[in-house]
From TrEMBL:
GO molecular function: transmembrane transporter activity
Lineage top rank: taxon: Bacteria
A single GO cellular-component term on record: plasma membrane
Protein name listed in UniProt: Efflux transporter, RND family, MFP subunit
One record GO biological process: response to antibiotic
Every Multidrug resistance protein MdtA-like alpha-helical hairpin domain range: 121-197
Location of the Multidrug resistance protein MdtA-like barrel-sandwich hybrid domain: 73-221
PANTHER family xref list: ACRA/E-RELATED COMPONENT OF DRUG EFFLUX TRANSPORTER (PTHR30158)
Residue ranges annotated for the Multidrug resistance protein MdtA-like beta-barrel domain, each copy included: 233-320
Record-linked Pfam families: Beta-barrel_RND (PF25944), BSH_RND (PF25917), HH_MFP_RND (PF25876)
Amino acid sequence: MKHASIILLTNNMKAHYILIAALCGLAGCREDNGAADAANRREMPPLKVSVMNMEQRTVELKSSWFGHLRGVEQADIRPQVSGTLIRQVYWDGSICNKGELLFEIDPATYQAAVDREAANLATARAVKLQAEASLNRVQKDLDRYDKLIRTGAISVKNLTDAQQNLKEMQAALEEAEAGIKQAEASLENARINLDRTKVRAPFRGLASKATASVGELISASGSPLTTMSSIDPIRVDFSVTGKQVLSRLMDGTVNVKTGRMGDMPDFELILEDGSVFEKKGKVVSVDSEVSRSTGTVNFIGHIPNPDLKLRSGMAVRVRAVTGTEKDALLVPARALLSSMNHRNIMVVAPDGTPRRIDVQPGETVVLDMPDGKGGTAPMLMQIVTGTVKPIPESLKEIGFGKPADAPVIVEGGMMAAQYSKANSLMREHGATEGFGTVVPVPFIYTAPVSTTPSVTAK
């Protein structure tokens, strides 16, 4: 008669083995009931496992994308006039208000230009006064000639000459007025250039390190003196996959025709150290095209930054709610097991035996869960669905009325899976007792601790 032997690996580091002999012939179980009775008497020792009940709740599904920060307003600060830089007013890397003085260029030549144009304006005004006086004189002569022509005291030629002089004086006056306007424009241009010797902040923001030194000759066509970026609010650029954008178009969050945002959820920033920034941002625009090279769409968001903790150029992750799932079944992520390209979880049946349920993992979410010490802690939870049949149906067959009653094995699952496999073989060979059981204890959550290598390690 053939016998099947099953070797189980215990959960300790010495890798002890328990040899369980299932004394049932693969073809002769029915002929030898004594072998089955022998199997019943070979009991496996109870296995201690940590468990947490399955969760069933509606959860928000979140997605995250890599992004970078920049100013909502961002500009190179270039000189608009040439000259010698005589002063840098701001401190490198400081916050400057709109209109605040940043640099000063030697104003001497520009002040001289203002004075020159002011003199030209005065000359133009004097020319106008002279033209007006000449016009008044000619007009009086013409009025007098009108009276004299009637008495024959003057000839017609005298009258026509006076009329011609009047027209010339009127033209001279108009020319003088145009000269005044030209002089005023030249003076205004000179004043503008003089004012440009004082380089001011175009908006409130962070001014970077200056690229020019005091005493250096700079030109209007030269390099920027510094760069500025607004910092409150600050802008975040990130890219979303075309598939996710399509789902937003379908549910109406993004208007197909205008590209404008509808009821777009606020997003949060995850900083480089893993912390979540205290303020939430809003999406303000979406690019009109999907990138051919990356298959993504560029998004732009604004986020308040009143304490100026965020700076342009920082790398961040943008996280937002992308949907909800009603009555989702959740288990701790560490409870998932892998076997032959299949994923499964182990639950403790009412009779104390471990039972396997094949599952399909879904979204991973972070939820505040009982930590086993009377409190709660943010825990990585996995949404699961059944592969062969719905999970609630599988749990009912095991003996649970609802999913929340089922204790899921979080620690000790690999060994429990071995027990479950042995139990299945024993049942197949007619055993009715002696099955491997587990002793469930509440799962005590311990947050992962990152390990930093010693600087003295070789």
